[in-house]
Amino acid sequence: MMPYVDGFVLAVAKDKIEAYKALARTACAVWMEHGALDYVECIGDDVPYGQLTSFPRAVMATEDEIVVFSWIVYRDRATRDAVNAKVMADPRLKAADMPFDGKRMIYGGFTTLLQALVERAS
What we know:
There is one protein chain. This protein is of the alpha+beta class. The chain contains four helices and four strands. The protein has a four-stranded antiparallel beta sheet. The chain has helices at residues 17-33, 55-58, 77-89, 91-94; strands at 4-13, 38-43, 65-74, 106-111. The chain has one domain: Alpha-Beta Plaits, CATH 3.30.70.100.
């Protein structure tokens, strides 16, 4: 069975990036403790503003914001639904101050079409 993935794109103000990193570390711990297989947060480094479409356009990023691209991997959709229910009830995230505009966050769940992994050295 191929894994299930939740994907996220959002914009974070440059002056709130340290607060976002702290939130990401907490969120990672929460998701992994509740059963996620992998949790990845990426800060935009080469994310051009496109003429028609782009990550910055999609989240209406301003000049003082950085695009963040994230994903969480689960065994399957049922596991994702169960994990997310536990995460949403977790007090560590309920009390968190979100250092970004959630109304501009793009997110969705995806079934895996293809996956290739390279073994990582320990």
